[in-house]
Inverse folding.
């Protein structure tokens, strides 16, 4: 009957006693969590007199435990605390989903590294450009998409930033999934806590190949313009 009610009403929280007519509270808790993993379960029992009893209840899937008899105010406070935690979790999931949507749709490659420098997250554009998989890029796997001639310089600059806790900025090529190297402006900034301790690093790689092409075209235009001017002056002098 309890499972039917949960299926029909989908409550946010279930208050589950231990003395049931047809099964133990732990067994019912397992069934609830199996079918409704997002439903909170607060176990309440006179049997929670030792750490082992609570451990078994938590292993069965309970989110918290109370010992009977308990004051009504304590019961209500415990339920509200669980619901508040679930609402912080929901807000965090929404925030993470919004961040991933933003990060996967901005026109640059971006990533995050732990304090010692190993990268643990890339946006989808990184994988789309490099043609790699997450397992290939984890930690220091990013070195495989760098120009081997420039890699020692890049590593030295990056390790210096890690040691000094300073921002990193450099232009270097990255190999795309098609095997072509394109120039990227890379910037990395440390993310610190309130005490100044570095928690992680946030990096971006911006493709500047079009900018480089435009600059080369402008240089060529300037060079040919100067040549045309000199040719015109020479022609007038001859005339």
């Amino acid at each position: 009957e309890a499972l039917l009610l949960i299926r029909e009403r989908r409550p946010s929280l279930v208050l589950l006693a231990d003395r049931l007519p047809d099964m133990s509270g732990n067994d019912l808790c397992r069934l609830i969590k199996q079918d409704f993993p997002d439903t909170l379960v607060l176990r309440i029992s006179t049997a929670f007199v030792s750490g082992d009893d609570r451990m078994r209840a938590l292993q069965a899937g309970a989110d918290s435990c109370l010992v009977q008899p308990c004051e009504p105010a304590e019961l209500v406070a415990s339920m509200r605390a669980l619901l508040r935690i679930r609402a912080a979790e929901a807000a965090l999931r929404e925030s993470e989903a919004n961040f991933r949507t933003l990060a996967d749709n901005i026109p640059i490659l971006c990533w995050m590294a732990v304090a010692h420098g190993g990268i643990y997250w890339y946006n989808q554009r990184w994988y789309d450009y490099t043609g790699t998989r997450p397992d290939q890029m984890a930690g220091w796997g990013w070195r495989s998409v760098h120009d081997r001639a420039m890699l020692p310089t890049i590593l030295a600059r990056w390790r210096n930033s890690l040691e000094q806790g300073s921002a990193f900025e450099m232009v270097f090529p990255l190999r795309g999934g098609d095997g072509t190297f394109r120039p990227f402006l890379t910037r990395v900034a440390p993310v610190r806590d309130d005490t100044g301790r570095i928690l992680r690093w946030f990096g971006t790689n911006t493709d500047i190949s079009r900018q480089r092409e435009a600059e080369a075209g402008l240089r060529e235009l300037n060079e040919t313009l100067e040549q045309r001017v000199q040719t015109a002056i020479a022609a007038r002098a001859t005339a």
Summary: The first strand starts at residue 13 and ends at 17. The mean pLDDT is 87. Residues 72-105 form the longest helix (34 residues).
